[in-house]
Amino acid sequence: LASQDIKASPADFTAYGELAHLTANQGNYEQAKVYAERSVNIYPSSLGYRVLGLVLTDTGDYSGARSAFDKSNELSDSDETYVDYAILAVIDTGHPIYTDTLQAAVDSRPTDGLLWLYFAVFEQEQGSNALANTDLAQAEKFTQVPSDIYSGIKTNRSFTIQVASTTVTVRAAP
Residue 39: pLDDT above 50? Predict the structure, then answer.
């Protein structure tokens, strides 16, 4: 249907965004990137940049994904974009650049258990089991914490999780 919309109206940025999403779900990330870029080039929307960021995350272009999420957030302060940042932070391990973004996310949405959960995993990845446990306690107040994450952080042992389309091994903190 989105393809038909584009044939009827080549400037239909929404249809390009839908095609990007559908194509990414089929695993064709390079084509999804083309569609997502066309969407934001036609009309730079928060949702369009969010879709582009998700596609770039899937292609491993984490810097480009951060940039797209930044633009999405500039256009609309949305819960989904903060969760996208959190997912990216967990996947793109080793970059403390996300600390301030994640802290701002939980400060602005203190009852979002999923954000706290991703922040806990991120802190564990950064080598701070104490902070990870603090964040985990906050997550538990608002969401069900998966047992592998809970036990991995509580016992400071390595664990593996699936985040988006990526498997991430979170190592024990030193």
Answer: yes
Q: 115-133, pLDDT tens digit by residue?
A: 999 999 999 999 999 999 9
Mean pLDDT of 81-87: 89
Helices 79-91 and 98-108, axial angle in degrees (round to 10) = 150
